[in-house]
Each structure stands twice: as C-alpha cells, then as structure tokens.
C-alpha cells in the first residue's frame, strides 16, 4: 500500500510498534522514491484503550501533518476456540482490531475534515466480517465491527472524505503462517500489491466497500453460500479435536501474529 501511494507522490508516515521495522520499510520506499518524504512514529496501538490516548498521540506526532490518505490497517489474527483462548489474547484482538480503528478515526477526523481538498480513509477489514467462524469468533466479530463502522462513516463524511472498507480474503502475508514455517495454500490467495491495486480502483469509484482482487470477489460469493457456511459452522468438532491435539504438541503458547 505504501509503495503504491509513494509512486503516486504521497509522502508516507507509518505508525507501528516496531520502530526498526518502520525504518526498514521507509528506507525501502526512499530507495525507490527519493523525492518522497517519510516519517516514523513508534507507538503500540495495542496498548491504547481510550480516545484521549489517541488524541494525545495525534497531538504529539501527527497534528502538523496534512493527511490526505489514512490507512487504518493494524490488526492481529488468532485461530482458537473461544473458551480455550487466553484472556490476554482475546483482549489484544478486541483492542487492536476494534478500538484502534474507531478511536484513531475519531482523533484524526477533525483535521481531515478541515482540509480544503478531499481526503480518503481506507479501513482494512476482512471477508471474515461477513460470516461467523468456528475458532475465529473474536476475529470475525472485530472485523464486522470495522466493516459496519467504516460503511457508516462512508455515508456520514462523503461530502468531504472518501471512506472505503477493504474486505480481502486470503492475502499472501504472515497472517497465513501456521507458526511452523508453513503458509496456508489457497487457489483464491492473492499477492498484497494486486489486492491493493484493485481496491484503489474501487476507492476512486466512490464505493463504500471493496474485496480488491477478483479472487476475493469469488471468495465473497463462496462465503455467502449456505452450503459453505454450513460447512464452516459445523466444523466445530474437528476444530476442537485439532485444538486438543495442538495443545498436547505445543510446549509453549503460540504468539499472536501482528501486522
């Protein structure tokens, strides 16, 4: 996403918890686009739980920036039967996936509405926002929160801001890693740059939501199928058996994946 924006002449500011990774990514962007200005803001959004904390973050680091494009993209993914999931992990998913989207938008919206020209906000949700998931109840619930919030915001601010909710399916990122060095394979998986490129076309068209890649449009058709939903929801016994087997094999708790 950042590379495509830099290619169009946008300056880039990345807010994330890992300062070293931010600087590495910004260095890659500067190498390809030397005229683009970049800024690094190290902040753990998973630890911010109030709008006041987000407003303080904005006042310290972002208040003087002319924001033409805001990507609310931070997220965490887990696959765990709800009653087996650690309390701390459930809290992390709720805070990062849910609160950061609503609270950061609340903190930044006033200065974006004051711009003379239009702005854009892209909220990264998921195809999981459209269906309940056995083993992913908290994740799908937070993604539904993001989607419904974003679509509502689209209509509330469409006089000045283009808001789009991006609901991709399988994307070739570390969120598909199983923790053992393997990545989930799927014929409907797409590369991040392809999905983002297609999503941006829908943003220009003024649409409130976008699956991005044509592969993910097909995924959406599948998840809306009653047969597919029946299979997913009735996978509970197998999912629970897999959970017990994995718990017996693991000697330590698997860390959640952050992007």
Provide the descriptors you would attach to this structure in a database record.
single chain; 259 residues; alpha/beta; four-stranded parallel β-sheet; two-stranded parallel sheet; 9 helices; globular; disordered C terminus
Description:
- This protein is of the alpha/beta class and 259 residues long.
- It folds into 2 domains: 1-42, no CATH class; 43-258, Rossmann fold.
- The protein contains 9 helices and 8 strands.
- It has helices at 2-7, 19-32, 51-62, 87-113, 137-156, 192-204, 214-223, 226-233, 236-249, and strands at residues 12-16, 38-42, 69-72, 76-77, 119-124, 161-166, 209-210, 257-258.
- The strands form 3 sheets. Strands 3-5-6-7 form a 4-stranded parallel β-sheet. The protein has a two-stranded parallel ribbon with strand order 1-2. A two-stranded antiparallel ribbon has the order 4-8.
- α2 (19-32) links the parallel β1 and β2.
- α4 packs parallel to α5.
- The longest helix is centred in the middle third of the chain and has 27 residues, at 87-113.
- The chain is globular, with a radius of gyration of 19 Å.
- The chain starts with a helix and ends with a strand.
């Amino acid at each position: 996403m950042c590379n495509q924006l830099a290619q169009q002449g946008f300056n880039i500011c990345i807010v994330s918890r890992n300062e070293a990774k931010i600087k590495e990514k910004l260095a890659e962007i500067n190498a390809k686009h030397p005229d683009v200005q970049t800024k690094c803001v190290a902040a753990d959004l998973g630890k911010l739980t109030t709008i006041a904390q987000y407003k303080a973050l904005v006042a310290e680091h972002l208040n003087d920036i002319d924001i033409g494009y805001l990507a609310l993209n931070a997220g965490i993914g887990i696959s765990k039967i709800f009653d087996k999931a650690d309390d701390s992990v459930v809290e992390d998913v709720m805070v990062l996936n849910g609160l950061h989207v609503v609270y950061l938008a609340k903190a930044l919206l006033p200065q974006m509405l004051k711009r003379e020209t239009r702005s854009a906000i892209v909220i990264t949700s998921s195809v999981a926002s459209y269906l309940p998931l056995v083993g992913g109840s908290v994740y799908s619930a937070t993604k539904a929160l993001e989607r419904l919030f974003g679509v509502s915001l689209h209509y509330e601010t469409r006089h000045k801001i283009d808001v789009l909710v991006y609901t991709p399916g399988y994307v070739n990122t570390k969120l598909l890693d199983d923790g053992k060095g393997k990545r989930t394979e799927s014929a409907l998986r797409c590369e991040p740059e392809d999905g983002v490129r297609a999503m941006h076309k829908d943003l220009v068209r003024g649409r409130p939501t976008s699956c991005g890649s044509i592969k993910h449009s097909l995924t959406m058709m599948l998840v809306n199928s009653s047969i597919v939903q029946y299979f997913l929801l009735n996978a509970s016994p197998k999912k629970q058996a897999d959970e017990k087997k994995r718990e017996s094999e693991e000697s330590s708790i698997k860390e959640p994946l952050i992007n």
